[in-house]
Design goal:
single chain, about 400 residues, 4-stranded antiparallel beta sheet, about 30% helix
Length: about 400
């Protein structure tokens, strides 16, 4: 970020034992891991083996810092990653991932006479982490596609001007907005569609999206809409593109194998751009999903690229890990119970690091964070103390 961005510090709040930031994401993912590592480095009284402490850049935007590590940069072959988000859980594997970049060329035309310019906003969704919460969050771009399909059925001359939603591919957005032109006589029909879909969605997502909403309002701005054929292709493509859980793991109960997110969506003068983030514990399933996305996009006249440099491999679990066995024993000795062992559907740098440094013995641990990548992100304060005590005991045991 630029120096100007640093002039607006977080407004921190403590609510019921949780640390939050007012009106923005807290950044505990993974600011708390950095803080814990620095605390270890600053305390000369801590008993530990020789340490290398690795800080990387651009973890959230593509694991790029880890991808650019040199083979001779790290000497040791035991890695405790501090980027997990549930105290009492040891992560031993994660999904791999890759991006698909869809580009739809646009042709614009003058709006027909007798048209009204409207903005449709699907909002109030929770949003969240596209790996960890993809099974419990609706995607507003898919909902927008459903709304626009209904609208175009009752208003055949509907034209899109733009769609906008999301900023990051690893975040499920909380809102999607579309600017359209529609025949004057069909404007009121949109309110009927709004009411029908809200009732449908509130029933469908009753336990997932309690605040889902649709706003429709007029805009006086003038801008040439996209022609009818391409408008239809965009709407159909949004409805065809996959979202959410594609497959569940056959080996691990309640664990996602493959999923995909739609975000961001941005419209420019001559193009509509959509980014899809695919994740999978299986390279074959990841390849298949990205090819499916490409086939759908090209069938509607868009291009689609799945760059190899934007992919990272899965971290396959090693349940015979000596580091894991020690980490379990230390936790049990300290707290009188065994920690949970999991494979996460989120992306972790351990996948990339383990691919570069063959034979690396790795675990990932951390205090409890909820709703990462969203303004509702919060850090459990008590879990930080509990986890830090555990980390110190583990370092001493090593």
């Amino acid at each position: 970020c630029s120096p100007a961005d640093m002039t607006f510090p977080l407004q921190l709040e403590i609510n019921g034992g949780w640390l939050t930031a007012n009106n923005t994401t807290l950044g505990a993912d993974n600011g708390v891991g950095i803080a814990l590592a620095l605390t270890v480095l600053a305390d000369n009284s801590i008993k530990h083996p020789p340490l290398e402490v690795l800080f990387t850049v651009e973890e959230e935007t593509g694991l790029d810092g880890a991808k650019n590590l040199r083979e001779d940069f790290i000497r040791y072959r035991k890695l405790i990653n501090l980027d997990s988000e549930e105290e009492g859980v040891i992560t031993v594997g994660c999904a791999g991932g890759g991006r698909s970049y869809i580009n739809m060329p646009l042709e614009r035309e003058q709006p027909n006479s007798g048209m009204t310019s409207l903005v449709i906003s699907v909002n109030g969704l929770l949003g969240g982490h596209s790996g960890l919460e993809v099974d419990s969050r609706a995607n507003p771009n898919k909902l927008m596609g459903e709304f626009l399909e209904r609208a175009s059925n009752v208003a055949p001359e509907l034209r899109l001007v733009s769609i906008k939603s999301g900023e990051q591919d690893n975040v499920i957005p909380s809102e999607s907005s579309a600017w359209i032109y529609i025949e004057n006589e069909n404007v009121e029909k949109l309110n009927n569609i709004k009411n029908e879909l809200l009732n449908k969605w509130k029933d469908e997502f009753s336990d997932k999206e309690p605040h889902i909403n649709i706003d429709i309002y007029k805009t006086e701005e003038n801008y040439n809409p996209i022609n009818k054929n391409i408008t239809n292709n965009i709407i159909d493509m949004l409805n065809e593109l996959p979202y959410g859980v594609i497959a569940w793991s056959k080996e691990l109960e309640d664990t996602i194998e493959t999923s995909v997110n739609i975000s961001p969506v941005k419209t420019y003068e001559n193009s509509l751009q959509i980014v899809m983030m695919s994740r999978s514990a299986s390279i074959e399933s990841l390849n298949s999903l990205q090819e499916r996305i490409k086939e759908i996009a090209t069938s509607f006249g868009a291009s689609c690229e799945n760059p190899a440099e934007d992919r990272y491999p899965p971290w396959e679990p090693n349940f015979d890990s000596k580091l894991l066995a020690l980490a379990e024993d230390v936790y049990n000795s300290l707290y009188g119970e065994m920690p949970e062992i999991e494979v996460t559907h989120g992306g972790l740098e351990t996948a990339v690091i383990g691919d570069i440094y063959k034979g690396m013995d790795m675990i990932s641990v951390g205090p409890t964070i909820e709703n990462a990548h969203s303004p509702e992100e919060r850090l459990n304060i008590q879990s930080v103390e509990k986890f830090y005590n555990y980390l110190l005991e583990l370092l001493e045991a090593l």
